[in-house]
Amino acid sequence: MKTKWDLTVFYKNEEDPKIESDILAIEKAYSDFEKKYKNKKDYLENEDSLVKALEDWDTLLGVAGSWKPAMYLNYRKDLDSFNQKADSLFNKVVNRLTVASNKILFFNLALGKIDKKLQTQFLSSDKLAPFRYYLKRIFDTAKYDLGESEEKILNLKSLPAREMWSSNQEKLLNSQTIKFEGKELPIPEASNKIFELPKQKRYELQQLLSEKLKSISYFAEAELNAIYTDKKIDDELRGFGEPYSATILGYQNNEKSIITFVDTVTKNFPISHKFYKLKARLLKLPRLRFPDRSVSIGKNSKKVSFEEGLNIFKKALGNVDEKYVKILDHFIENGQIDVYPVKGKRGGAYCSHSTGNPTFVLLNQVDSIDSIMTLGHEMGHAFHSELSKVQRPIYQDYTISVAEVASTLFENFVFEELLRTMSEKEKIVALHDRIEDDIKTIFRQIACFNFELELHRSVRTDGAITKEEIAKTHNKYMKAYLGNIFDLKEDDGYFFVPWPHLRYFFYVYSYAYGQLISKALYKKYQGDKDFIKQIEKFLSAGGSKSPEDIFKEIGIDTSKPEFFLDGLRSIEEDIKRLEKLAKSAKLV
Ligand SMILES: [Zn+2]
Q1: SS3 of residue 454 by DSSP
Q2: Structure confidence at residue 300 (pLDDT)
Q3: Rounded to the nearest 5°, which phi and psi values hold at 121?
């Protein structure tokens, strides 16, 4: 069994002369396209010429879009951070390819400037049907573009108006430590440590942490006011209606259905309340405080080797569809999964796909349940990427809001199979951890969305917001999803200070959206095993349609709350299942 990447499908090594000849070929492809279309106007006016130009564009992406030499060097670097040669060569190659690809930026910009009447005509043209969604996206986004010189100014000012604020906030955070039990703990370490401590120590560290955060909150107050005001200025100049509009458009979602989704989750916060009530009973605490929210109810010491995990995963996939077993076997045989941690190898896990290249999965297996769940997650992305190769190059990539549907869907398959191998005690811990993860990804992220929205609205209507108000608003929205079993202290509110999500403007919804859709799909699949054929349609759609249309095609209307309610009910069922298990083990 190959547990290491075989990168020879790309090149022999860094010295392979094919690297240079491939770079030259990519540079030439970009240049040729530029020469052919830069000074042409007919494709912007005439249907037949536009079809031809888009076909050429699609071919170009298939040839040059792979950035094969850069991908190869990036993988080499990720396997071995001490590989200086790969590192410096990677930087050089990326620079060359960036310069080369800048030559074709004109194309989408020119398409965006086609006049409104012609846009409507092109969108209803039969000849252009294969490119309709691509064009629609360009036209929809171009509406918010400003003139070239204004775009340039906005681009340049984003550094002092946004990035420099956030990086200085990070610097301030990184310079702080908390003295606890004779040790100086950096803030991230202290934040994680809280959940591992016994009750009194936990509350003590929480107190120290919130005092520290409060003492430096003057800077986060200035930072958030500055970047939220900057965002307001950009949105007004571009004509975006709501603070979240730009993000939703960027993720190719429909604003109305996302707001329906956010409202549906918000209305169902009582499901999350139920979980925390049960958690309090499992922890034998009458009331919960903020630092209790992520305390574990026990360690799952079950060891699962990669081989065992792989067999469990294959068994789960075999019950679903042999097709997925075959893809997984193929990945192993061809060395497309790098399994074990090695000194110098990049940490974490990812699945990397690019047009025209094989898909690669990086893991850092440590023989735990989490490692196997990660295999399921990353292979979910891999199945999605492999099946989407039926699409033409412009549509092979997919938006983040559907990416996480695929990955978390396959987590469900692995998890159910894993549960079968566990003792009752192990099941309780595993199920608790799994539900807690759902609660954090779905309810907490949507609480964050609501919190962020109120901050943006306050800045927009009142001009600014004070740190005391931000802290108070933080508690209001955290309490909303945590429920009445929690007693929050005023100073808990200062946990807004290090929260990175608040700086990324509503991107949190995409994770909640992905996870909840996958829950609902899984529930549908459990009720009707043939539904896997519909799931396959979604996995093969790439980015050929909007997420709403991809799901509509398999009979799911994401503009209606009913579908999301299905997913929410499955979390409720899991909570009941956990309660039943805990009762029979006499834990509650
Ligand atoms: Zn993922």
Answers
A1: helix
A2: 77
A3: -65, -45
Domain co-membership, 56 together with 68: yes
What distance in angstroms lies between residue 5's CA and the mean position of ligand 1's atoms? 20
Ligand 1 centre distance from Cα of residue 207 (Å) = 34
Q: Do 488 and 585 sit in the same domain of this protein?
A: yes
Task: Say how many Å lie between the first and final Cα of the chain, rounded.
Answer: 45
Residue environment code for 253-291, b if the CB has 16+ CB neighbours within 10 A, otherwise e: bbeebbebbbebbbebbebbbbbbbbbbbbeeeeebbbb
Q: Are 366 and 32 in contact (CB under 8 A)?
A: no
Q: How far is the CA of 416 from the centre of ligand 1 (A)?
A: 19
Looking up tokens 């030499």, which residue turns up?
69
546 lies in the same domain as 558: yes
Query: From ligand 1's centre to the CA of 541, what distance in Å?
Result: 18
- DSSP E strand stretches across 470-528: 486-487
* CA of 4 relative to ligand 1 center, distance in Å: 21
Q: What is the pLDDT of residues 103-149, one digit of tens each?
A: 999 999 999 999 999 999 999 999 999 999 999 999 999 999 998 88
Encoded tokens for 288 = 């919960």
| Predicted model pTM | 0.93
Do 451 and 312 fall within a single domain?
Answer: no
Distance 349 CA to ligand 1 centre (A): 9
The pLDDT tens digits for 27-58 are 999 999 999 999 999 999 999 999 999 999 99
Q: What element of type H or E holds 470?
A: helix 467-482
pLDDT tens digits, 487-535? 999 999 999 999 988 999 999 999 999 999 999 999 999 999 999 999 9
Given a contact cutoff of 8 angstroms between Cβ atoms, the answer to whether 447 and 480 are in contact is yes
**Residue 587: strand, helix, or coil:** coil
Q: Is 101 exposed, middle or buried (0-12, 13-18, 19+ CB in 10 A)?
A: middle
Q: Looking at the structure, tell me whether residues 133 and 31 fall in a common domain.
A: yes
If you measure from the C-alpha of residue 377 to the centroid of ligand 1, how many angstroms do you get, rounded to a whole number?
Answer: 6
The residue range of the domain holding 263 is: 244-300+440-588
Asked whether residue 404 falls in the same domain as residue 322, the answer is yes
- 351 Rama sector, left if φ>0, alpha if ψ -120 to 50, beta otherwise: beta
The CATH number linked to 447 is 1.10.1370.20
Q: How many domains does the chain have?
A: 3
Residue 338 alpha carbon to ligand 1 centre in Å: 17
Residue 77 Cα to ligand 1 midpoint, Å, equals: 21
pLDDT digits (tens, 9 = 90+) for 53-103: 999 999 999 988 889 999 999 999 999 999 999 999 999 999 999 999 999
Closest CA to 455 of 445, 447, 464: 464
What separation in Å is there between the alpha carbon of 305 and the centre of ligand 1? 22
